[in-house]
Amino acid sequence: MTTRGFSERWRQVKFLLLGLPFGIGVGYGALTTLSPPAARFLLGLVIVGYVAWTTQTSTETSTDRKKTDETLPQQHPTSDLSSTSPRQNMLAVSMGMCSGFLNATFGTGAPPLLIYSREASWDPNHFRPNMQLIFLITNI
Q1: What pLDDT is attached to residue 42?
Q2: DSSP H or E segment with residue 36
Q3: Which pLDDT band holds residue 2 (cuts at 50, 70, 90)?
Q4: How far from 77 is each of 68, 119, 123, CA to CA, in Å?
Q5: CA torsion, points 7, 138, 127, 111, in degrees to nearest 10?
Q6: H or E segment to which residue 29 belongs
Q7: Distance set, CA 86 to CA 4, 89, 90, 91, 122 (Å)
Q8: Which of 36, 55, 96, 135 could form a disulfide with 16 if both were Cys (CB 3.0 to 4.6 A apart)?
Q9: Are 23 and 112 in contact (CB under 8 A)?
Q10: What is the C-alpha to C-alpha distance for residues 60 and 13, in angstroms, rounded to an integer?
């Protein structure tokens, strides 16, 4: 990866990484205090919530695709790395916190990261390197 490639990845993931330590701390606390049935219930809520979100966004995407197929050719939206809004930054921090919490508690930190990557419209070519960077830093 070139220096330019790393700086682009860094700009896309830095706000996610800001929330991770806080989520890991809360997740570790939850791991030591939650009863096993409460932990299983929480994990079930996370899984059902993620499946519901995925189903809802898949339905919206297929509906949007049908509309655009009739008018113009569909192009994948690329993320504009230079124009991150405060709303998107707050979403990234909160998803980083959720990911850290889930990673520390259950070892499943990916669902919030997948949700954020979809909402931020990461280019498919940037998705894998971004995830690798996040997981590398998270697991150090």
Answers
A1: 92
A2: helix 36-71
A3: low
A4: 13, 11, 7
A5: -150
A6: helix 3-33
A7: 24, 5, 6, 9, 17
A8: 96
A9: no
A10: 26
Which pLDDT does position 61 carry in this prediction?
60
Buried b (16+ CB within 10 A) or exposed e, 94-103: bbbbbbbbbb
| 103-122 tens-digit pLDDT | 999 998 889 998 898 888 88
Does an H or E element contain 125, and which?
Answer: helix 124-138
Contact yes or no for 50/124 (Cβ under 8 A): no
Cα–Cα distance between 56 and 81 in angstroms, integer? 26
For 48-111, give the secondary structure using H, E and C: HHHHHHHHHHHHHHHHHHHHHHHHCCCCCCCCCCCCCCHHHHHHHHHHHHHHHHHHHHHCCCHH
